[in-house]
Structures are given as C-alpha cells and as structure tokens.
What we know:
The protein is of the alpha/beta class. Helix content is 33%, strand content 14%. Strands 1-3-2-10-7-6-5-4 form an eight-stranded mixed barrel. The termini are far apart.
Amino acid sequence: MKAISRRNxxxxxxxxxxxxxxxxxxxxxxxxxxxxxxxxxxxxxxLYTVRSVxxxxxxxxxxxxxxxxxxxxxxxxxPAQAASAGTASLNAVLDKAASHGLNWIVxxxxxxxxxxxxxxYYRKLAERIEQAAVEARKRGIGLAYHNHAFEFEPMEGxxxxxxxxxxxxxxxxxxxxxxxxxxxxxxDPVETLRxxxxxxxxxxxxxxxxxxxxxxxEKVPPATFRxxxxxxxxxxxxxxxxxxxxVKHYFVEQDQTPGDPxxxxxxSYRHLRSLSVPA
Length: 279
C-alpha cells in the first residue's frame, strides 16, 4: 500500500488538488446511530486520520466512520498553493469547489519552504489569502486557514498568527483553529478562541499528551497525539468557548494513533458526546 501524506491525500476532486475541502455524506444505506448528547452539534472527521487504512477498503472505512456518528467528512489535499496561485488558477479551483457543492475550503498547511522569517512576509501572505477569501465568498464558499504551532513563534515583538489575525479582522478569511497545535505552542485554546471571537469558523479537535514543553514546529513524538479525553486539554471548556464565539463546524483529527485509527475516532467521539457543555 502506498503511504499517503497530508500533502497528497485527496479523496475528492472538489478542491482541485489545492485545498482541503469540507463536504461529504455517509455512503448510501449507512446506518448512523446518533446517541443523545449533552453536546449536540454535529462532529465531523478529518480523513487524514485514516490515511493508513482508507486506500485498502475505502467504502468499509467510510461506513465505519459514519456508523460512529460522524455525518461530515473533511478531505485533505495539496496544501497552501492557493495562497500564491495566480488569479486564473485560483478562480479555476474555486469554480471546481463550487461545482462540487463545497461550503468551505481550507488552506491546511505551509511547508517549511513556504514559511517566512519576517512579519511582513506573513502580512502579505494574509492579504493574498484575504483576496482569495473574497473570491470564494462570491461563490458562496468560505475560506479558512489551518494553524500549526509555527504561526505562534515570537517574531519582532508579535507573531505570524497575531499579524494574520489583524489583517483578517472584519474580512472574509477565517481560521480553522487546531486546538492541539495552539497548545503545543504554549497558548491556551480557550483564550485563543475568545480572542478570535467571530473569526474561527472551523475547529480541529485532538488531545495532547501532558508535560510537552512549548515548541513552534511539528516535530512532536507520535504518542503526543491523543484521543479526546486521553490527554491534557479541557474539551468541555473548548467546546463551550466555541459555542460562545461562533464556531460553525468541529472536526476530530488525530495525526498519529496507537492502533486502528477508526477505533481512536470512536473513542474521541464518545468522550466529546459525553461532555456537558453550557448553552
């Protein structure tokens, strides 16, 4: 079986190979059991989690995921090219996304060579992303940017995250906030959600092993990635903050799992559904 990376996983052509997309319904005839939940919002799943098993038995894996109770699937494609794509290329991507009925597309990752060393670099990048978001909105599509830890690295008295957030204030570009990477960088996910009230449309939920020192890169041990409820993050507080601040969609993701990734997704789902989240 060929290994699948975040860079080349694309289960749907909807995003044209450039962006992560939010779409998808369970395969026809899939029984879905939705237990009565204290946290009733729909939970989606980022299919990057199951990249090791999906190519062999795609229909079986997708049915197992749907049967857990995940009605929405999020694909992962080639990251961040749209941030620097020409207008014609960008419009082609957006038109294709619209033709496939996507509501959101996401810039999921900047590779090392796509990252800058100055705040001015990230300011200009954010401006280009905002222009793309304006074009996306014309087609009824939201555009979001997914953070990792490097955006929080102190730089010139601020950080790339804070500069990008300032550019997007009052604009169309939104955040897909990954609470794991926010915590890896030493920030509080709840506080970050509240600071970005109205600007976080999508949230990635995954837990983090305790006692990891703050860092600004993705080089964490595989065991750092945990199922929700099996680590150090307070998901009741995170979900409450998401409700308060206008989050529209939640996606469970786990970059590394100790065994069957679908079993890990089920464990996270059961924990999140068990939480009592203030209205």
